[in-house]
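Pair request: fold both.
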Amino acid sequence: MKKKTKFHLLQFQWLLLVDVILVVGGVLSFGAVARFGFQMNESNALYMLGMIPSMWIVVSLCTWIILRAIRKRMGILLDGIQSVSNGDLSVQLDTNGAGEYEAIYRSFNRMVSELKNTKEEMDNFVNEFSHEFKTPITSIYGFSRLLLETGEEIESPERMQYLQVIADESLRLSELSQKTLLLARVEACEIITDKEHYSLSEQLKHCAILLLPQMDKKKITLEMNVPDIYYYGNQELLEHVWINLLGNAVKFTPEHGRIIIQAKVTPEQMEVQIADSGPGMEEEILSHIFEKYYQSQDGRKKGGNGIGLAIAHRIVTLSGGTITAESHPGKGSIFRVAFPAD
């Protein structure tokens, strides 16, 4: 549920203090001028001083009425800004009755409309470019696989080897293009849109199921200790985080190894941990793993492209969370993703 921005008149206490100074200063100045400039007697001068409380009340009441109107209009603007910061680009402020804030409201509405149009154009470009780029690569991969599966008796070993290289590299290029486009997309974003409440525990299970064939191939044992957790965020983007982290764990975990997924919730935060029994990392490698296109020697050997962890880091950061890694040579790695509690 969207929270409204709250603030009180006490936040304008400096203005109330100014009222007091103006009233007291004005009355005293008027009294001094009347007493010494117009020879007003002492009793009339004291009468003027006695008017200070009444005049302060009148001025304060007027100030309160003005501040109340300002607070209402400012509150509408702050609520709109808060909605946009939460990813809602459908916000439009009603300019009726906006008074002196009408120009600000109209500028805000134009800004939100431009942001929405920019996001739609970027999404369309990414989808169209991805489709145009992926189609020929998919065709190359499909035909090379067909030749590999049907050409064992008629093709020479060398030709089969070349076809395997074509198949592997076309698949690698396809994955690289998709991840590069996704990285460009999330790097261009400053706010997360399309947020919703959903079951994070079910999402983690779904991602693990997608990678089960790879785990079964390496006879990796999967352990999950994830309670029922619900999260408010972009479900599609967060899925990329878990797929990348789990994919890395599967890639670096040896045969008959183990991967552990666990989560916990505290009043302050929600944390997901993905641990593997892989070879671990040196401190120097660990300090660079979230950088774009960075690859260790082992990563290159296993066909990595150095983009997955950069994507995960950017998405988690955009979502207001943190992602960290702990690893020691020969002791595996643990990736922790934490989000503030709702």
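--- second member of the pair ---
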Amino acid sequence: MAKTAPQIAGADVHRLHNVPDQPDNPGIPFDRDPVEAVRVNLSAVERRAATLPTRRTVKKAWQAAWLTRALTCIDLTTLSGDDTDGRVRRLCAKARAPLRADLVEALGFMDRPPTVAAVCVYHPFVAAAVDALDGSGIPVAAVSTAFPAGLAPMATRQAEIEASVADGAREIDIVITREHVLTGNWQALYDEVRSFKDACGPAHMKTILATGDLKTLRNVGRASMVAMMAGSDFIKTSTGKEGINATLPVALTMVRAIRAYRDMTGHVVGFKPAGGISTAKDAMAFQFVMKEELGSLWLQSGLFRFGASSLLADIERQLAYFVTGRYASYDHHAMA
């Protein structure tokens, strides 16, 4: 593979690291009309979602380049009840060096080895993650506001955000009260997300819609619009704890809402699919959605993230196959 690997480095490595600043969406005053105007043609969205992965085929060096780009968009995540300080620190070590050294060399990335976009943890582990990532430039994202259900008192949820920011989290992933969406109480949803935005201060805010709980794509589209009006810098599909998490129809609905919001306000918002994205093939399908619907700018970590853990192992495995021509056991690509 000696002749092929330099094609990746020469063609893509500089663009790979030319990441734009994250969006800083100030939001706009609540306006019910654009929210009520959201309509979703279910059959058309499902048809588009079914055909998108087949419309693009990338092989060999191009596939390796797409997968390396996907790697740099991962929010490497551990959100388990048995998390420990040691597990989080091992995850941070993997975040710093997500590819084996021999793969980095073979792919031509020795001058600027790729890293993941962020490390995502519960609040108690923010300080440990910040310490473990010191000097790497990799931000810590904290799930907050009584993740995953979001049913704690408002003051408790706001205080959790403030505590994570004080401990060094530069990104906050908040969850909404699903009842506001299911009952169509859009003003209440706006006020809730706006209060969380204020609590985030300098940290960027990703709003998790928990789309598997919202029942319809129209609800997903309307909730996306309200969350962006309230100042969300990213909108995110799922906590990963719902029965249904990130799907391509949901992604299409949300990225089209992002496009409509940009056209309406001029403000740019990022997108984060999360939950159930575990294979390189899955990752590329979501990348194709971004490329087709929003353009190449949304293929960089400033505007696009995967919420994932096991995804990294499969991407590393596919890149190892590109380099060696053989699939290795997952044991050779341990997460942490």
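Observation on the second member. The chain has one domain: 5-333.
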